[in-house]
Amino acid sequence: MDAWTDKSIGAAFVLVFLYTGVTALTVSGAELTLRLTPRDALPHAKAAAFPSTRAASSLMNRPGSRASARRIARALLLLNTCIGISLLMGCAILWRSTPDAHVPAWLLTAMTVPLLAGTVMTVLAAVSDRKR
After folding, report:
1. What mean pLDDT, rounded, does the chain reach?
2. Is the Cβ–Cβ distance between 110 and 89 less than 8 Å?
């Protein structure tokens, strides 16, 4: 598709539909993170300093505490916001009214930087939870 072709509703709003799906997934992930029982609230986590391998595998993806669960959920929602900003840049080019075939060079940077920033913040939140 270029600037001179006819655009259908689906083609014009593909990024909006994509972001709607991504938002549903990230909000669901944040909600599930908040609903998990953290490692420090489990009864056997307090009893043994080194839980058995079987018990350790069930604790692998749990947040360490309620505070870290909130921190990870916020980071997921921030990642969603960053994805939205990136897709907004794409919408600015897709929805422009002038039939210009030239795509600005800054578009790749404008779409990549928010994605990287959100990803780094989400990874840092998860890694800081593992260190505690």
Report:
1. 81
2. yes
